[in-house]
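To close the section, here is one more complete example, presented without commentary so you can practise reading it yourself. The ligand is guanosine-5'-diphosphate.
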Amino acid sequence: MKDKSEHNQEQEHAKTMHVKEGVKTSHDGTGAVKQRRFKKKATSIDIPAFAAEITGGSRRALAKGITLIESTNALHRKQAQQLLQETVKEPANSIRIGISGVPGAGKSTFIEQFGMMLTQKGWKVAVLAIDPSSTVTGGSVLGDKTRMEELSRHPNAFIRPSPASGTLGGVHRKTRETMYLCEAAGYDIILVETVGVGQSEVAVRNMVDFFMLLVLTGAGDDLQGMKKGIMEMADLIVVHKADGENLRNAKRTVREYKRILHFLQPATPAWQAGALSVSSLTSTGHEQVWEQVLDFQKEMQASGYWLERRESQLQHWFNEAIEARLLDRFFNQKDNKQRLDYLEEQILSGDLTVGAALDQLFSKDEGM
Ligand SMILES: Nc1nc2c(ncn2[C@@H]2O[C@H](COP(=O)(O)OP(=O)(O)O)[C@@H](O)[C@H]2O)c(=O)[nH]1
Ligand SMILES: [Mg+2]
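Output:
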């Protein structure tokens, strides 16, 4: 049960071209959309035709769709929502995998190997990378030499780095929507790479089915230092760079992790997270990782938790989005700024308690 053809016998459903009828369009299916798309004065995009190009498998259309999603321009944002509305169908028939680890753990190298293996099995693989540190340094992170060159040339792979700007929350919203668009374009497996810096891990855990953590050996000390919280998010620990002089150490580290994982809260109910040693230098262990993912999928789909998690992720996202929108609206309201400044002064000078200031602030809009 490892190849796509076998695996999907029951699951695969035709990806229908979801073009609305009755939409008036002069689009000829090729150049018109492209030319109009990002011109400053552009006011309209032929959304149904654009959507059809994407669901039809055009990589160029997909890339442009993602650019639309990432744009901060108000019109583009609106068009991006129309595009998503037109293309996205939940629950998607995909496997979403989060891959985390400190900079230098070998995530990109691992993903290139793992991705190549999956494409050889006939899967279409999309790789999305969230790297919040790149927004600070403006460049790539320490040790990140690989550009996934082999994978990026493969016709069944699509690689998209994170946008280089924007708030952490914004990056995640875009990554999630980008993931949806990749699925609409027919990508079966979505690999989301994220750097181990806490906040972004939680966000990625909240948008994937399976979450793995890449760690290194010499872990006697690492295990002490590693936050319990992040280990409790993982469905699998990969002890990476298990090669050369490191090999024996890696095997020992795997045993240590297995022992510790046993005492931790599982990331996914009824799934005992395991640990495996992998080397992307000698290409060993990737098959076993994939077997873990497939076992996980099989068990979770049988128990119903697969869909349950996706639903609760959607609910969670919706709630977060409401909060973000309300905050945005509140702080951008013109007269609120003055009121807030005034109340803040009063609080700092000791004339008002925070609670009293809140009561004053919200006294006139009881509905909130
Ligand atoms: N020995 C060994 N080195 C590796 C392995 N995987 C990656 N590396 C090296 O580790 C460094 C960091 O890899 P990279 O994929 O950029 O790490 P990332 O920051 O986690 O994405 C690079 O110099 C890689 O060549 C591995 O399996 N074994
Ligand atoms: Mg990397």
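Once you have examined the tokens, check your reading against these statements. The chain has three domains: 44-87, 90-302, 316-366. The chain is about 50% helix and 10% strand.
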